[in-house]
Predict the 3D structure of the following.
Amino acid sequence: MAISTTRKTRPDGTQTRAQDPEGTRQNIIEVASQEFALNGLSGARIDEIAAKTRASKRMIYYYFGDKEGLYLSALENAYRQVREGEAKLDINGLPPLEALKRLVEFTFDHHHQHEDFIRMVMVENIHHGEYLARSEVIRDLNVTAIGHIGTLYAKGLAEGLFREGLDPLEVHWQISALCFFNVSNRATFSKIFGKDFGSSQMQETLRSNAVDMVLRYVLRPEKLAAL
């Protein structure tokens, strides 16, 4: 079984190779994510994934057990990346309106830049969330995300900015819906209506609209003039 190696330099200047199992595992996940996003769970092939990685087919089975295990690991990795990006925003010290604006902008940009994430979520919805339901990792990641929105929303309520009675989970839904659709349906909308929704000008407009719609959804009516 071949394991990916990295080069290390000895004090005398000569180089040796060191095993890098985590690097190999991550390389497999990255390639597999592209294959699953393109071909779905049923259409992706372990042979094809192995051919595009630094690993053998045998090694893939060693790390992940089977194709479903690899798919679940790729799905977990996709969710982990978006949540880690959110964590780096460091919006806790911002005024609630600015924090929410930053969160929507990040989500829009992340989905636009990581189309494989959107396609993998679409694949998982075809499977009715069957594999996602097996993952405590994904559940924990998303509970944290809702917790951040809850904290932000509570601060906006305390300052008299946000209207009462909103569920942070539903706020998350609205943000996700606007940003997800931008990738999932961009091609069909562009073809149907003869307008390039993927152009830089349209993307800038859609991004601004997404922010505006979410802020108008959460703001008290008398605060809308501040937008």
Q: What stands out?
A: The two ends are 59 Å apart (CA to CA). The chain has a mean pLDDT of 89.
